[in-house]
């Protein structure tokens, strides 16, 4: 995987220059030019994997009958990004609009492969989104999408298991560690959670702990995976790992879903999009799960984002104003957002987060708990100042070869993070960045 992704995502600075001078490069624009393009019509291509996309496209075409949207599912995750990067490098074949997760956005924005949407008046919508997601769609001074969703983290726990073993819902990570010991000692087949080494989870946990290991200033990248916040997280997680208190069942596998259903895995610390996953894929545990705030180090509310994405306009687009109009409609129009929420999405829009109808939702799966009260509160306590690497896709691809070995061998995560940092510094320097240790 690492070799494949190195080829696909390499040349982070120079490899995308072929598209920046294409005939589709966006010139000066405005909100008026977007409105005019929508009225004039045309055809655009949209790459996405989201399940609600077909319904959203149909609603958009009904609202703007002169516009045709060619909807393409180019794959998910690395498959999607590899195809997108290959089209960018080739200078042709990229869509007008592509789904891009927040963590991957810098890798496409910094080389100049995406259209800055500031020129189309989208910056005026800042007040409509949560601060953390608004920050997530910015790279340097550019705006490269509107937030589609958010993933403020919370503690999802199997209340039936917790009650059976007399475990109090932990408010701090020390209490979480104690709960992990109590549960596993009472029943060695059960674990407080599972983690066999996931880069997205690790970076979110570092984020919540106050770590800020990555910063980018132009072509200069600073990496410090041994900062105080990172060590705060590893201080807890190393104990869970070394005491064999973490299930090693791979996430998103059939065994993982079964373990969530039968109580083998008793909790998850993850994004606010998780309720829909549990309801759809762990149906036999209906009535057993509940939601609580994410544990913290001092008991004061603070969380991080885990997951979330936007849609970006590609520089190759022959009609960037029309593409920008589609992006604006997707993530700002009430009819589109309703489709997204009805399919289980968690909003990034402040109005929807604050709506009584959303907060008061009491799903039967969670025994009528008003879970969105917890999740919307989490959205307001996301720690500020986080940024990803400009080659985060590559970074994630080599996580298993470095930090993953710590999980595999039950050894110090800090050592694995040092190995990861060295690999990331070497790679960044090879790609034309100046990378230094923080």
N-to-C CA distance: 28 Å
Order of strands, widest sheet? 2-1-3-13
Report the average pLDDT across residues: 93
Give the overall silhouette.
globular
Strand content bin = 5-15%
Radius of gyration: 22 Å
CATH class of the largest domain: Alpha Beta
Helix count, DSSP H or I runs of 4 or more residues:
21
How many domains in all? 2
CATH superfamily placement of the largest domain: Periplasmic binding protein-like II
| Structural classification | alpha/beta
| Overall number of strands | 14
> Helix fraction?
40-55%
What's the CATH architecture name of the largest domain? 3-Layer(aba) Sandwich
Major beta-sheet overview:
4 strands, mixed
The fold-level CATH name of the largest domain is: D-Maltodextrin-Binding Protein, domain 2
Describe what this molecule looks like in 3D:
The structure is a single chain. The chain is built from 21 helices and 14 strands. A hairpin with a 2-residue loop joins strand 8 (214-217) and strand 9 (220-223). The strands form 5 sheets. The protein has a 4-stranded mixed β-sheet with strand order 2-1-3-13, sandwiched between helices. Helix 3 packs across helix 14 and helix 10 (199-209) crosses helix 11 (228-242). The model is unreliable at 1-8 and 14-27 (pLDDT under 50). With 438 residues, it is an alpha/beta fold. The chain starts with a helix and ends with a strand. The protein has 2 domains: 2-149 and 309-360, 3-Layer(aba) Sandwich (D-Maltodextrin-Binding Protein, domain 2); 153-305 and 384-437, Periplasmic binding protein-like II (D-Maltodextrin-Binding Protein, domain 2), CATH 3.40.190. It has helices at residues 2-9, 17-20, 31-40, 53-63, 77-90, 105-109, 131-136, 159-164, 173-186, 199-209, 228-242, 254-262, 274-281, 320-332, 334-342, 350-354, 356-359, 371-379, 392-397, 399-409, 413-430, and strands at 42-47, 67-72, 97-101, 138-139, 142-143, 153-158, 193-194, 214-217, 220-223, 246-247, 267-271, 289-293, 309-313, 434-437. The radius of gyration is 22 Å and the shape is globular.
């Amino acid at each position: 995987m690492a070799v494949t992704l190195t080829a696909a995502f390499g040349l982070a600075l120079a490899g995308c220059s072929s598209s920046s001078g294409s005939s589709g490069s966006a010139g000066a624009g405005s909100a008026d030019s977007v409105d005019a393009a929508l009225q004039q019509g045309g055809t655009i291509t949209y790459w996405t994997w989201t399940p609600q996309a077909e319904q959203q496209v149909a609603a958009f075409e009904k609202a703007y009958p002169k516009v045709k949207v060619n909807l393409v599912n180019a794959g998910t995750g690395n498959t999607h990004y590899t195809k997108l990067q290959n089209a960018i490098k080739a200078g042709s074949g990229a869509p007008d609009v592509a789904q891009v997760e927040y963590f991957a956005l810098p890798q496409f924005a910094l080389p100049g492969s995406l259209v800055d949407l500031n020129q189309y008046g989208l910056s005026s919508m800042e007040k409509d989104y949560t601060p953390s997601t608004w920050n997530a769609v910015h790279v340097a001074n550019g705006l490269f999408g509107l937030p589609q969703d958010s993933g403020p983290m919370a503690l999802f726990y199997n209340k039936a298991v917790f009650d059976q073993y007399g475990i109090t819902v932990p408010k701090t990570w020390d209490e979480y560690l104690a709960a992990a010991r109590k549960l596993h000692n009472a029943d060695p087949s059960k674990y407080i959670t599972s983690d066999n080494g996931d880069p997205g989870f690790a970076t979110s946990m570092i984020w919540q702990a106050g770590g800020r290991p990555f910063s980018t200033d132009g072509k200069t990248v600073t990496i410090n995976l041994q900062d105080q916040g990172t060590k705060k997280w590893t201080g807890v997680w190393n104990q869970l790992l070394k005491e064999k208190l973490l299930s090693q069942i791979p996430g998103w596998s059939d065994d993982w879903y079964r373990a969530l259903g039968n109580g083998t895995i008793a909790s998850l610390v993850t994004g606010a999009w998780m309720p829909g996953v549990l309801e759809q894929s762990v149906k036999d545990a209906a009535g057993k799960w509940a939601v609580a705030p994410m544990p913290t180090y001092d008991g004061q509310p603070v969380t991080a984002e885990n997951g979330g994405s936007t849609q970006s306009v590609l520089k190759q687009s022959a009609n960037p104003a029309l593409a920008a109009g589609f992006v604006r409609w997707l993530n700002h129009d009430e009819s589109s957002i309703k489709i997204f929420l009805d399919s289980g999405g968690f909003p990034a829009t402040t109005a929807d987060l604050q709506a009584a109808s959303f907060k008061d939702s009491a799903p039967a799966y969670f025994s009528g708990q008003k879970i969105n009260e917890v999740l919307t509160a989490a959205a307001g306590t996301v720690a500020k100042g986080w940024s990803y690497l400009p080659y985060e896709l590559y970074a994630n691809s080599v996580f298993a070869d470095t930090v993953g070995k710590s999980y595999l061998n039950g050894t110090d995560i800090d050592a694995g993070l040092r190995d990861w940092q060295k690999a990331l510094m070497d790679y960044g320097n090879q790609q034309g960045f100046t990378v230094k240790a923080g």
